[in-house]
Every structure is written in C-alpha cells, then in structure tokens.
Design a protein that fits this description.
Blueprint: E1 4-7, E2 10-13, E3 18-24, E4 33-39, E5 45-51, E6 63-64, E7 72-77, E8 82-87, E9 96-103, H1 106-110, E10 116-117, E11 121-126
Parallel strand pairs: 2-11
Antiparallel strand pairs: 1-3, 3-8, 4-5, 4-9, 5-6, 7-8, 9-10, 9-11
Length: 127
Amino acid sequence: QVHLVESGGGLVQAGGSLRLSCAASERTFSSYAMGWFRQAPGKERDFVAAIPSVITYSGGSTYYADSVKGRFIISRDNAKNTVYLQMNSLKPEDTAVYYCAAGGSSIRMRAGSSSYWGQGTQVTVSS
C-alpha cells in the first residue's frame, strides 16, 4: 500500500505559478511511475502528467496532456520519495482538484489507470 500526500495547492492569479508536491510513504518509491490528474467541478478526472519509474527510466517516457504541454513540468526526487508538478502560466481552466498517483507505468497513467491515489489538493486560478 502506497500512501500519497499532496501539498502546494492554493489560489493564484492567471499567469502565475504554483508547485505541487506529493510525498509517498513507500520505500520502493523509485520503482513506481508517478503522475498527476485533475478533476474540475462537474467533470471527470483527467490525466495531467506522468513520469516513469527509475527502473524503466531509460526506456520510459514522460507524458503530458495537450492542455498543459509547455506550461507544466513533472519531476521526481527519489531520495525524498517526492514527485512535483511545476505549473506555470496558469489559466482559469486549470482550476481543479489535483491528485497524485502511483502506478506501474507512465503510459498506463496516460490512459487513465493508476494503482494508488492521494486525497487531492485544490488549485484555483482567478481571472
């Protein structure tokens, strides 16, 4: 069982930046692909970004949703069991609850599948 705790959400003006963090409890953190999803009010949860595990890093890929490409950056610090989502040039349509996820592969996350989920952190972008 992997326990994920997100932090870093908040209220920001359009054009601003936020960095989300997700701390994982699992000692084998580096063996998991990690990702971020988001859910806006009244909508389904959508994929945002995913980064492969260290095990598959050389052959795995980092993926982004088209809506965030060029604005968001996902990264991981395996020594700290933490994954980050740097969000730049934020838009009101980025407003959502952001969820951290851990799973087997980044490509399966891109398809919406993950094994473990955090509780979510609210991001609100004002116009």
